[in-house]
Amino acid sequence: MTIRLGVIGLGVVGAETLQTLKNHSNVIEERSGQKVEIIEVSARDKSRDRGFDVQKYLWRDDPIELATSQNIDVVVELVGGEDGVALEVAEAALKAGKHLVTANKAMIARHGARLAAIAESMNVTLAFEAAVAGGIPALKALKEGLAGNRINRVSGILNGTCNYIVTEMSETGRSFDDVLKEAQAKGYAEADPAFDIDGVDAAQKLSILAAIAFGGTPNFDSVDTSGVRYVTDLDIKFAKELGYQIRLIGVAERTKDGVMQRVSACMTPKAHPLARIDGVTNAVLIEGSPVGQSLLVGPGAGGGATASAVLGDIVDIASGRGARGFGEAASSLKELSVAPVSVRTGSFYIRVMVIDRPGVIAEMAAIFGKNGVSIESFLQHGRQPDEAVPVVMTTHDTNESTIRNVVEQLGALATVAETPILMRIESL
Ligand SMILES: NC(=O)c1ccc[n+]([C@@H]2O[C@H](COP(=O)([O-])OP(=O)(O)OC[C@H]3O[C@@H](n4cnc5c(N)ncnc54)[C@H](OP(=O)(O)O)[C@@H]3O)[C@@H](O)[C@H]2O)c1
């Protein structure tokens, strides 16, 4: 038998998927137990040079015609975007009884539960391994290899662009803007990098991991999200001095109040496995019982890594192993109760630019004392009378809403020159 594919979207991931399917056709056929063939393709511009001959396939100008075509068993959506064409294609394909493979984290984070329900009602597979951490089979690990565990926490470095930026800043001492420009020149960051550097991309992936880990529907809106845009070379230097690395880390964990999800640039102890992940590499740390900690590391993006995950899903479907997208019946996925980060307890890094005058430190210490926050360490280097100098404090464990109040009160002092910087210390 032959499994007939239709691929919509022939950009970075689509082109690589076609190419790899051709180059590895023997392996894929052996593992699938049948032939896997691309029959139809669709993209916006038929005349665009894609490095392969599109004439070999039936070209569809209208992607919905492909999604519902009688000639196709599996639709591979590689267009992207939360709504629009991608969502129309996904709904049309599933409703027409086609299996759907997608790399689209934005769509799955927002509409995944509904699409899974349609897939289940039509008895077809919705597969989206490529949507999270590209070349790392993190979703499969949760759904299959670790299926017998109660998962307590999933955390990770889920955005290669951000990790490249903070690694380079740390290794070279260069500024955020300088490294971002280089990342754009190397193709690691988009021309409009907001989705990556503001943490949105990582939050979409985290919400998908959390849904699978905790048996719920993805709740992207409840991820407390910030990015690396405000990381300065000064904070990178202080991080080193204090024994930390700054990393953009996503954490989803069970708490007594519900599932808490957060993405932020934070201080991570240098010895922590996630602090040692450099450059564009991604990592997913799964913690559960009885397994303990399981760390998966690999390439998180790029055509090859993403095509690897897309092809894994295709082989699963072709070999009859097409699993449920979220690891359990769509009808059993619950809306998970949400624990806001305001109830979290942890330690923090605070940097304040203060005008160097007598009495300033006592004023700051009084604010900490009044709010019941205990300071663990205090750093000030050199003196510049009447000039703004950085003062850094780390705290013992304290409540997150309390520390936000402290920072607001510090920022309101006449001797504080800039909005203070607050970062979580994620010891995990
Ligand atoms: N790139 C990565 O490293 C990576 C990693 C993980 C996941 N992903 C996900 O993979 C998906 C694809 O990403 P990509 O980087 O390959 O994007 P891309 O290079 O921008 O390619 C998008 C493709 O979609 C086609 N397209 C756009 N609008 C269309 C429409 N209205 N009808 C038909 N085709 C349309 C484009 O056609 P034309 O070529 O004719 O313009 C292009 O071939 C996204 O969901 C993305 O989030 C990407």
Record keyword descriptors for this entry.
single chain, 428 residues, alpha/beta, Rossmann fold, Dihydrodipicolinate Reductase, domain 2, Alpha-Beta Plaits, 3 domains, 6-stranded parallel sheet, 6-stranded mixed sheet, 14 helices, binds NADP nicotinamide-adenine-dinucleotide phosphate
Walk me through what this model shows.
This protein starts with a strand and ends with a strand. It has 3 domains: 2-135 and 323-331, 3-Layer(aba) Sandwich (Rossmann fold); 138-299, 2-Layer Sandwich (Dihydrodipicolinate Reductase, domain 2); 344-425, 2-Layer Sandwich (Alpha-Beta Plaits), CATH 3.30.70. The protein is α/β, with parallel strands linked by helices and 428 residues long. 36% of the residues lie in helices and 26% in strands. The mean pLDDT is 96. The protein has helices at 12-23, 25-32, 63-67, 84-95, 105-121, 138-145, 160-172, 176-185, 194-197, 200-214, 233-242, 303-318, 360-370, 400-411, and strands at 2-8, 35-42, 58-59, 74-77, 99-102, 126-127, 150-157, 223-225, 244-255, 258-269, 281-289, 292-299, 345-355, 375-380, 388-395, 398-399, 421-425. Helix 4 links the parallel strand 4 and strand 5 (99-102). It is elongated, with a radius of gyration of 24 Å. The longest helix is centred in the first third of the chain and has 17 residues, at 105-121. It is built from 14 helices and 17 strands. Helix 1 (12-23) crosses helix 12 (303-318). The structure holds NADP nicotinamide-adenine-dinucleotide phosphate (NAP). NADP nicotinamide-adenine-dinucleotide phosphate binds at residues 8-14, 42-45, 48, 63, 78-80, 85, 103-105, 130, 134, 301-302, 306. Residues 8-14, 42-45, 48, 63, 78-80, 85, 103-105, 130, 134, 301-302, 306 line the site of NADP nicotinamide-adenine-dinucleotide phosphate (NAP).
